[in-house]
Specification:
Number of helices: 10
Helix content: over 70%
Distance between the termini: 79 Å
Low-confidence stretches: 186-190
Structural class: mainly alpha
Strand content: under 5%
Number of strands: 0
Order of helices and strands: HHHHHHHHHH
């Protein structure tokens, strides 16, 4: 019963499972083909379990890296506010950051069948994080609302998340900033003819 013990070890078989035991008995009492078939089933299950473990590890690493970037952004925002004499971040603002990050990460990485990627193959979630990072590091931004909106600025354009959902969860002010950032992004992608049609003098 080596095969049976191996199946139990990898989670394909539960003790006292009559169906599996009968299947093993049939395979061993039938011919080589039956035993090979069960062996292939065990092997495929083992391979799938290994793939699942690898995917879980990848997902953990992705979340860990994104969270680390988010924490760096918030820490820099704290420094900016302190250096300019602004009040410290409130618990409500801290909660806002975490909520915006979770929604953005989930929308870009977990909701799709596969995590969204950028043109360079990196996870798309790094783009909104880098946008927020640029605001606090290069521009010295201190506005917590703007940073939260930066986390969210592509969810309406590139994910199933709607404007109504953003407004319901984060308020009208953040929605307006997200929509403004989307408009800027759209303008940057236009050619000269498209800009002229929109009324821009170029």
């Amino acid at each position: 019963k080596y095969l049976l013990s191996h199946m139990e070890h990898i989670g394909l078989y539960a003790k006292d499972n009559e169906y599996i035991e009968n299947l093993i008995d049939w395979a061993e009492g039938d011919d080589n083909d039956g035993l090979i078939g069960v062996g292939n089933m065990v092997r495929q299950n083992s391979i799938q379990k290994q793939k699942d473990i690898k995917e879980k590890i990848k997902a953990t690493v992705r979340l860990s890296k994104a969270t680390e970037i988010k924490e760096t952004i918030i820490e820099r925002l704290r420094e900016n506010r302190k250096n300019l004499g602004f009040p410290s971040l409130t618990p409500e603002e801290e909660s806002l950051f975490n909520k915006a990050f979770i929604v953005s990460y989930s929308a870009h990485t977990l909701l799709p069948d596969k995590p969204q990627l950028r043109y360079d193959g990196e996870l798309f979630i790094y783009h909104p994080l880098e946008t927020a990072k640029y605001l606090v590091e290069k521009l010295g931004e201190v506005d917590a609302t703007l940073i939260a909106a930066a986390f969210l600025h592509d969810v309406i354009e590139y994910t199933p998340v709607t404007a109504e959902q953003v407004e319901a969860n984060f308020g009208r002010e953040i929605l307006n900033i997200v929509l403004d950032l989307n408009q800027v992004s759209e303008i940057q992608r236009m050619d000269i003819e498209q800009l002229r049609k929109q009324g821009f003098e170029v």
